[in-house]
Amino acid sequence: MLGKLLKYDLKWLYKVLIVFYILALSFALIGRGLSEIENSIIFNILGQISIGISIAMMISIIMNNFLRMWARIIRNIYKDESYLTHTLPVNKKTIYLSKALTGIITMFTSTLVILLCIAICYYSKENIEFIKTAMQSMVA
Questions:
Q1: What does the pLDDT look like over 67-112, one tens digit per residue?
Q2: Which candidate, 76, 36, 61, places its Cα nearest to that of 116?
Q3: How far apart are CA 42 and CA 126, in angstroms?
Q4: 66 vs 9, 71, 72, 113, 135, CA distance in Å?
Q5: Rounded to the nearest 10 degrees, how much is the dihedral formed by the CA atoms of 136, 120, 118, 111?
Q6: Is the pTM of this model over 0.90?
Q7: Neighbouring residues of 48: CB distance < 8 A, sequence distance ≥ 6
């Protein structure tokens, strides 16, 4: 029964999160592509605007993930849907475990999408070398 609870919770959350994932990735790709065009101020400005929109989408992914998960918990456990949830032949621990696992899974996928967007927007050899030297100075 945990699998069915997870399936419906994940389906409910990913219905909206997928849209934000696609928007963030597409604006990151557009921004990277436009920023690579040299000797064009207009394309450079449009690329920076697209990267800014991608960063806004990344922040929106995190906020939307937390808020939708919180709304799902409140609606399923305390509001009108709770009558149906509590009449299921499932232990309360299983319901809470389903909600916790759903939050962990969606945060993990959101983190992966955000890291992918950051890599698309800012990957270069100079940035990698800067990160390596910064990490070495932190360790030493």
A1: 999 988 888 878 777 667 667 777 888 888 888 999 999 999 999 9
A2: 61
A3: 24
A4: 13, 9, 10, 15, 30
A5: -110
A6: no
A7: 31, 35
